[in-house]
Amino acid sequence: VSPDLLHTKKVVCFFIPGQPDTTCRAFIGETVILPCTATSPGELILSSSMLYWQIDSVLVHFFHNGQDSLAFQDKHYHGRTSLFLDQMKHGNFSLKLSNVQSLDAAEYICIYRQTGDNPNQTQKSKVKLIVSGKA
């Protein structure tokens, strides 16, 4: 991570003992990375992977058949979400959310599923985002 990146982001993600979920904090206007990793032996085949980021029934980001599929993305998140495409085959499904807004405060669910000839069990993780006013 470049030193510049460390100074521009005041984002804190932490684990709470006794709870499997992650909590992240960000200020309005910042960029936050919501962590999500999948466990799989070897590299993942992205062309037969499905990845959902959602809040309840709201679709925040969807990746399918090796590419972003944002036709049904909630308009509140349009143009503000991205994945780390170069790291996904290694199981990094973290979501980058830019220009954080107060309405972004929620519990996000990351859902990963391998499809095709060797489907695996669906993997889920939850990330709670707490948004504060401008620092």
CATH fold-level topology: Immunoglobulin-like
* Helix and strand sequence: HEEEEEEEEEE
Span between N and C termini? 23 Å
Give the strand order, joined by hyphens, for the main sheet: 1-2-10-9-4-5-6
Q: Compute the number of helices.
A: 1
Mean pLDDT: 84
| Helical content class | under 10%
Low-confidence residue ranges: 1-8
Provide an overview of this structure.
There is one protein chain. With 135 residues, this protein is mainly beta. The protein has one domain: Immunoglobulins (Immunoglobulin-like, Sandwich). 4% of the residues lie in helices and 40% in strands. The protein contains one helix and ten strands, in the order H-E-E-E-E-E-E-E-E-E-E. It has one helix at residues 3-8, and strands spanning 12-15, 22-27, 32-34, 49-55, 58-64, 67-68, 81-83, 95-97, 106-114, 123-132. The longest helix has 6 residues, at 3-8. Mean pLDDT is 84; it is low at 1-8. Keywords: Cell membrane, Disulfide bond, Glycoprotein, Immunoglobulin domain, Membrane, Receptor, Signal, Transmembrane, Transmembrane helix. It is found in: Cell membrane. It comes from Todus mexicanus. It is a single-pass type I membrane protein. Residues 3-128 form the Ig-like domain.
Topology overview:
Blueprint: H1 3-8, E1 12-15, E2 22-27, E3 32-34, E4 49-55, E5 58-64, E6 67-68, E7 81-83, E8 95-97, E9 106-114, E10 123-132
Parallel strand pairs: 2-10
Antiparallel strand pairs: 1-2, 3-8, 4-5, 4-9, 5-6, 7-8, 9-10
GO cellular component, one term: external side of plasma membrane
Organism: Todus mexicanus
Main location: membrane
